[in-house]
């Protein structure tokens, strides 16, 4: 989640990428009308209405003039914007959930939902097939989403919701982005449920006490502020990798860990748990042992916990458990080489398709132009052109003004 995103206090937030590697069409869908008060016909349910909207989109795409021998001249814009404001005069919708519900059941076009300043007391869920949604607030201190469910809150059938069901803001679809917004919870344990998929968190503030970043995602936290409010003992992470075959783990780079109480860097929720802190400042609240085996000594043989060039009073490796690692320069270089090799295998030997993300530094202009340094990266492929060129957009939906060749990927290392 890009800049200025804030996650604060704390039952569960769920970010899930389903089928993130699948190819998805990126054609303009049917834009909902401005009014959020559309009345359904007497005999039509919300599901039937969604299906109707989707079939309208199918008919629309089928009416376009396509050809097997040249690029289709589709002049439809690749994205659009909806607004949310508590005052219906100033927005398309008065709640975030209403804006999401207005989208087709299967969404294949980038939709930016701009949420104006205000406190939105609602529980928000994005279903699996509503992809390509961006939630953009007016600022982390201005746009706040708040709800109060806990794992013990009774659900519709009277049974406790559980951790998974208690999320204030739950994302179950791929290609989701949130920025300049706060998700606020009432509680302290299990703040950010990084359940499944690959995620990028940048410039986020995440607060909690016990296992407040947990799940089995493959996630990078960059320039994030992790703040503990543990009254006695807590833990930052509980990474849930369950198999040696999984490709998951948490990486914290250029972050800072502050707060109160005595804090473990992580607990081995999964037997193959993976967490690394690099170039991270740690306040004097880190328990010297650093890591906890979840009460199962056998996990000490299979987890991977490490740190590299961290600073602060809590970063000293003296006293760390023997089964954690202080990574050396040589180990980090080998890691970089593996990343390069994996990157070459997955990216260099295939053509990009609609929906793929491209590193910004890897893009060269077909017209020998230069990338504007203010453009955000990575970039997304909107359209594949002849001759190995692409039309690209920023993650916020802004189109780049010319065609681009992805020609110098070998110079880029993630």
From TrEMBL:
<feature type="active site">
    <location>
        <position position="211"/>
    </location>
</feature>
<dbReference type="InterPro" id="IPR033131">
    <property type="entry name" value="Pectinesterase_Asp_AS"/>
</dbReference>
<dbReference type="InterPro" id="IPR012334">
    <property type="entry name" value="Pectin_lyas_fold"/>
</dbReference>
<protein>
    <recommendedName>
        <fullName>Pectinesterase</fullName>
        <ecNumber>3.1.1.11</ecNumber>
    </recommendedName>
</protein>
<dbReference type="InterPro" id="IPR000070">
    <property type="entry name" value="Pectinesterase_cat"/>
</dbReference>
<comment type="similarity">
    <text>Belongs to the pectinesterase family.</text>
</comment>
<keyword id="KW-0378">Hydrolase</keyword>
<feature type="signal peptide">
    <location>
        <begin position="1"/>
        <end position="20"/>
    </location>
</feature>
<keyword id="KW-0732">Signal</keyword>
<keyword id="KW-0964">Secreted</keyword>
<dbReference type="InterPro" id="IPR011050">
    <property type="entry name" value="Pectin_lyase_fold/virulence"/>
</dbReference>
<dbReference type="Pfam" id="PF01095">
    <property type="entry name" value="Pectinesterase"/>
</dbReference>
<feature type="domain" description="Pectinesterase catalytic">
    <location>
        <begin position="184"/>
        <end position="325"/>
    </location>
</feature>
<comment type="pathway">
    <text>Glycan metabolism; pectin degradation; 2-dehydro-3-deoxy-D-gluconate from pectin: step 1/5.</text>
</comment>
<keyword id="KW-0063">Aspartyl esterase</keyword>
